[in-house]
UniProtKB/TrEMBL annotation:
The lineage of its organism: Eukaryota, Metazoa, Chordata, Cephalochordata, Leptocardii. PANTHER family: NAD-DEPENDENT PROTEIN DEACYLASE SIRTUIN-5, MITOCHONDRIAL-RELATED (PTHR11085), NAD-DEPENDENT PROTEIN DEACYLASE SIRTUIN-6 (PTHR11085:SF12). Keywords: Acetylation, Acyltransferase, Chromatin regulator, Chromosome, Developmental protein, DNA damage, DNA-binding, Endoplasmic reticulum, Glycosyltransferase, Isopeptide bond, Metal-binding, NAD, Nucleotidyltransferase, Nucleus, Phosphoprotein, RNA-binding, Telomere, Transferase, Ubl conjugation, Zinc. This is NAD-dependent protein deacylase sirtuin-6. Pfam families: SIR2. GO terms for biological process: DNA damage response; negative regulation of transcription by RNA polymerase II. Belongs to the sirtuin family. Class IV subfamily. CDD domains: SIRT7. It is an enzyme of class 2 (transferase). It is found in: Chromosome, Telomere; Endoplasmic reticulum; Nucleus. The active site is at H133 (proton acceptor).
């Protein structure tokens, strides 16, 4: 768990401000701030979420700088003792809410400083996730770059050899490269692929939502500012003060699970329950639901399988006025021979829809109303694929996202 992770890092004196007091917004203030956040989410086009240790504390994994954090207790000369292990920890409601928001196309990307692997375990697709400080369950080949997601914690830290060997098959046989862990130590360079994508999405985002982080570690902690500097909004949910509070458009002092439960309730979206290991390497069949502040007869909440429900809605007006617009849908279908066809429907700015099936299918155009009907039919019949694989393999080619200016950044405390 995080105690063992912290103990495995090299000695480093500058671990940031630990044990800062926590602040809690009164109930009425919290409700008003959540309403503002719902409005921001409804209006967003490219929402990027930045997560820290605070989203995993309810799963039994302690943070580092909280009142009872690992480093806070160490500074007091106390030895932290916790019962939860990385293997036994289950994703929190916040983790699962992010899975659903990504599935609906509302959250575009997640950038995490956590190494606990709970984002991957929750089923959040790895191609929409940057784990900037590594993952305790992942090994990577030092030769071809292939990564292996394990169901137990890998035996080493600080990018050391784990003793395993790559089994990637190539034209001339197996790769035979050596495997190493992905956990960064102080001053280690951040992974090229993860940092480059995090940088790109932070620049594209119109909303940066920070949850459970004091943003003290760079470069991770400074990424939300890339959104702010380009005219986007910055929202921070954290009990303690964060380094960039003065730049925030909205600052919420509350438990992230409570805040996210309130947000999801007002959006009319259920938080899925965690049912077991669900490693997803790539985004599953995609459909996008965009929430827009328009008057509408049916909200997200009272639509069930494409049909309205007779249910009294007590949520805020901002949630009740959110309209559903299906802009893009991609559905994977497998025939009896095991061959997968991909059906993709996209609507461009001119309200023209392009429909493509398979890798070589011809495209056809139809009006946005016709395409919307087809998309809604796919959403109505859509079943989220479940991939219960305790051990997965994936190739992440960092050379595809090489950026020398980004790749040279290292993990350290922001001393400014």
């Amino acid at each position: 768990m995080s105690v063992n992770y912290a103990a495995g890092l090299s000695d480093y004196d500058h671990k940031g401000k630990c044990g800062l007091p926590e602040k809690y917004d009164p109930a009425e203030v919290l409700a008003e701030k959540v309403s503002q956040l719902v409005d921001i989410v409804c209006e967003s086009q490219h929402l990027v979420v930045h997560t820290g240790a605070g989203i995993s504390t309810s799963a039994g994994i302690p943070d580092f700088r909280g009142p009872k954090g690992v480093w806070t207790l160490e500074q007091k000369g106390e030895t932290p003792h916790f019962d939860t292990t990385f293997e036994s920890a289950c994703p929190s409601p916040t983790h699962m809410a992010l899975v659903e928001l990504e599935r609906l196309g509302i959250v575009k990307y997640v950038i995490s400083q956590n190494v606990d692997g709970l984002h991957v375990r929750s089923g959040f697709p790895r191609d929409k996730l940057s784990e900037l400080h590594g993952n305790m369950f992942v090994e990577q080949c030092d030769k071809c770059g292939k990564q292996y997601v394990r169901d137990t914690v890998v035996p080493t830290m600080a990018l050391k050899p784990t003793g395993g060997q790559c089994t990637q098959v190539k034209a001339r046989g197996r790769c035979r490269g050596k495997l190493h862990d992905t956990i960064l130590d102080w001053e280690d360079s951040l992974p090229d692929r993860d940092l480059t994508l995090a940088d790109e999405h932070s620049r594209r985002a119109d909303v940066a939502l920070v949850m459970g982080s004091s943003l003290q570690i760079v470069p991770s902690g400074n990424l939300p500012l890339l959104t702010k500097r380009r005219g986007g909004k910055l929202v921070i949910i954290n009990l303690q003060a964060s380094k960039h509070d003065k730049h925030a458009d909205l600052r919420i002092h509350g438990y992230v699970d409570e805040v996210m439960s309130m947000v999801m309730n007002r959006l009319g979206i259920n938080i899925p329950k965690y049912t077991g290991p669900n490693t997803v390497l790539e985004s599953p069949a995609r459909h996008r639901v965009t929430l827009r502040p328009l008057k509408c007869e049916h909200t997200v909440n009272n639509l069930h399988n494409g049909q309205p429900q007779d249910k009294q809605d007590t949520r805020s007006e901002s949630a009740n006025t959110c309209a559903i617009k299906a802009e893009e849908a991609t559905e994977a279908k497998t025939d009896s021979s095991g061959v997968e066809d991909r059906v993709k429907i996209s609507v461009d700015r001119d309200n023209e829809a392009t429909v493509s099936v398979g890798s070589s299918a011809s495209n056809s155009l139809c009006s946005s109303d016709q395409s919307l009907q087809k998309i809604e039919e796919r959403i109505t019949n859509h079943e989220t694929p479940s991939t219960n694989l305790p051990e997965q393999e994936v190739m992440l080619n960092s050379s595809q996202h090489t950026d020398s200016a980004v790749a040279t950044k290292r993990l350290k405390l922001d001393s400014e």
